[in-house]
Amino acid sequence: MSSVRSVLSLLSIALWWAMSASAPLPEYSGDPELNHFIHKNREFAFRIKKDVAKIRELMRKAFNIISDSELMLMQEFLGIPQVDLSLCHADPCDMAGCFNQIRAGLHTYHGYFSHIKEILPSFAGHMGSLQVDVSNLSSNLQQQMQERGLTVVTYPQMESQDLPSFLQKEREIGSYLALGKFQKFLEMTLRALRHCSS
């Protein structure tokens, strides 16, 4: 009798394992259109992040920056704000709130790049390319929100605003550190998009 129970237990475990293995992973379950959108734009954000890393390396060499660690005190002094993505951590994902926060961050950095383009002419082309990518990513999010009937926040133009204080104090280092903040923002955006697809 005990051997029969053992066999039944083993069969139950095997059946459970087979069902678990065949179940879709959380990232790919749910709405196929949403998952396709998330996957496509995560790839886009990752490509932007790689481009930012290349630009920062060019700036590092141009401005004779040894490493980021030597700029920690300078970063605290300049007080470059970190974009808020707190709504992207909600469980389940607050898609409207999260996407609006991502778009607000993209809008902020688009404005920063406009100023950097003016104060560092040698990097104007790079900043212009980043602005195009940032605008396209924001537009992609907006379109997805509109298709789902979510509330879309409209932002005013930032180009007309004053030069941020951190760029007034340190144009070169401030620009380099702002791009570092943008890299971290993109990393958080990648995690947020993954979270919203699960």
Automatic annotation (TrEMBL):
Q: Name one Pfam family in it.
A: GCSF
Please list which residues make up the signal peptide.
Answer: 1-22
UniProt GO MF annotations: cytokine activity; granulocyte colony-stimulating factor receptor binding
Q: Does the keyword Zinc apply?
A: no
Top-rank lineage group of the source organism? Eukaryota
- The organism is Eublepharis macularius (Leopard gecko)
SUPFAM superfamilies named in the record:
4-helical cytokines (SSF47266)
Q: Does the keyword Signal apply?
A: yes
What are the top taxonomic ranks of the organism?
A: Eukaryota, Metazoa, Chordata, Craniata, Vertebrata
* One CC-aspect GO term: extracellular region
What keywords were assigned to this record? Answer: Signal
Under what name is this protein listed?
Granulocyte colony-stimulating factor isoform X1
Q: Which GO terms describe its biological process?
A: immune response; positive regulation of myeloid cell differentiation
Family label: Belongs to the IL-6 superfamily.
